């Protein structure tokens, strides 16, 4: 096996990727958020020193696991935001939030830019 020990060190450029590939349960959220996927993949595909094919496979598995965790975190954050929005506009408070019947659409000129747009004309 040929690779530099520095690459896979805990503080090295691919240390978090290595941990994700082999010790997925010990991966913390801040480690996942701090990992840049595109930089990591570039350093695996074009390493500074030659690495074994098996090692690059393990590292790519780590990248996939980190990407999966990032997607899960984003999914949970979006669900939390959706639940909070639904609670904010629930039926109990909808009387104060609903638009009047005649305000269902906006006038054309208020949502469309003019043909010639100049900042000096805006008042």
TrEMBL record:
InterPro entries: Rad21/Rec8-like, Rad21_Rec8_N. One of its GO terms (cellular component) is cohesin complex. GO terms for biological process: sister chromatid cohesion. Pfam families: Rad21_Rec8_N. The keyword Nucleus applies. Residues 1-104 form the Rad21/Rec8-like protein N-terminal domain. It comes from the Eukaryota. Keywords: Nucleus. It is found in: Nucleus. The keyword rRNA-binding does not apply. Its main location: nucleus. PANTHER family: SCC1 / RAD21 FAMILY MEMBER, SISTER CHROMATID COHESION 1 PROTEIN 3. This is Rad21/Rec8-like protein N-terminal domain-containing protein.
């Amino acid at each position: 096996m040929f690779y530099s020990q520095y690459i896979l060190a805990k503080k090295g450029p691919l240390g978090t990727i290595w941990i994700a590939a082999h010790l997925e349960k010990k991966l913390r959220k801040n480690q996942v958020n701090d990992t840049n996927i595109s930089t990591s993949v570039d350093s695996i595909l074009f390493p500074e020193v030659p690495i074994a094919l098996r090692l690059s496979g393990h590292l790519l598995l780590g990248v996939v696991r980190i990407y999966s965790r990032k997607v899960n975190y984003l999914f949970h954050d979006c669900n939390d935001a959706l639940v909070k929005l639904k609670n904010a506009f629930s039926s109990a408070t909808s009387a104060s939030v609903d638009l009047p019947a005649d305000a269902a659409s906006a006038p054309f000129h208020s949502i469309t830019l003019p043909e010639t747009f100049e900042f000096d004309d805006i008042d």
